[in-house]
Amino acid sequence: MIVFRVLSLLQKNLVYSIPAFMLAGIIVGWLADVSALKATVMPLTFLMVYPMMVNMQLKKLLTHGDTKLQLLTQLINFGIIPFIAFGIGKLFFADAPLIALGLLLASLLPTSGMTISYTGFARGNMNAAVKMTVVGLILGSLAAPLYARYLMGAVVEIPLANIFGQIVLMVFLPLLAGNVTQRLLVSRYGQEKYNTDLKNKFPLFSTLGVLGIVFVAMALKSRTIIAQPALLLKLIVPLLLLYVFNFGLSTIVGKLLLTRNDAIALVYGTVMRNLSIALAIAMTVFGQQGSDIALIIAMAYIIQVQGAAWYGKFSDKIFGEPELETPVSYRAAS
Q: What is the DSSP string of 251-267?
């Protein structure tokens, strides 16, 4: 079908499609009244999250043998990166606490479907990547409101109950619904048909949700961006600093403490953030302030996708040739 071909093309070229949708959002927001687009945030969020959850393998939580890798991943994700993001926010956005909050939110929800995809592309430990994606999503959803309240509550009002409520709607209900959907499809069509014909179709719709959310975020903030074009440059520099630190730290830890395949999973399990959920939280919880918070999260997409793609090209030079071939069987994006 032509729809799947178009979605597949957009997904395989996120390096270009995300900036294109950002630019389209800016143009549309400049030319028209786009206030009504706020009503599309929740439907787009569901379109983005639910398909990703259908392929989530919760049983991976029960597997053993990668405890060291998983502990290092979560230590970096929750013990280091949020505090680095907070420090960078204080340094660059002392007079713009909403943007600093956006940077913090972008660091608080680790892993996404892209963690699995890029680990597969670089021939890393896929099973560990799936497990850290599930663990990171659950821990991040529980921890993000608390970190935001503790670190930013003095300068920005953090509606703790509202954030938890939105996370239940955006993460845990789709997680439950996705797991039920997977079981029904496997029961109806069998595991083999699900793996070969059905599994890869769901992430395509997730990509559409991601691009839709990015478009809406840019459209709602369009006139501010056009009035202050230097604002984008102001946001890019601290984001680059955060991602360079993250890539560098994870690479060093991986080379010193882990095998080649595990090290690649560690890098993508700590650098790839679930920006889609962070963006949706910003735009649904914080009302009129949401578009300010969302701007830096939307900008992070460009650096994250570009950084992940280029890092994959050099992964063999950094860590050496793969220990064994790992089939690339996932095509997920969020």
A: HHHHHHHS-HHHHHHHH
**Is the separation of the CB atoms in 212 and 44 below 8 Å?**
yes
Question: Please, which residues have CB within 8 angstroms of residue 235's CB and are 6 or more apart in sequence?
Answer: 99, 295, 296, 299
3-state secondary structure of 64: coil
Structural domain range at position 229? 13-319
CATH number at residue 299: 1.20.1530.20
With tokens 């979605």, the residue in question is: 7
How do residues 127-147 score in pLDDT, each as one tens digit? 898 889 888 888 998 999 999
Number of C-alpha atoms within 13 angstroms, CB side, residue 328?
11
Number of domains, the chain: 1
Residue 326 lies in a domain: no
Q: Is pLDDT above 70 for 325? A: no
Phi-psi region of 175 (alpha: psi -120 to 50; beta: other; left: phi over 0): alpha
The pLDDT assigned to 327 comes to: 44
Alpha carbon distances (Å) from 273 to 99, 159, 320, 327: 17, 22, 25, 23
Q: What is the pLDDT of residues 78-120, one digit of tens each?
A: 999 999 999 999 999 999 999 999 999 999 998 877 788 788 8
Percent of the chain with pLDDT over 70: 96
Q: CA-to-CA distance for 327 and 266, rounded, in angstroms? A: 18
The pLDDT value recorded for residue 328 is: 44
Judge whether 256 lies within some domain. Answer: yes
Contact in structure between 117 and 333 (CB atoms under 8 Å): yes
Confidence label for 332 from pLDDT (cuts 50, 70 and 90)? very low
Q: Residue 160 falls within a domain, yes or no?
A: yes
| Strand partners of residue 110 | 273
Asked if residue 7 belongs to a domain, the reply is no
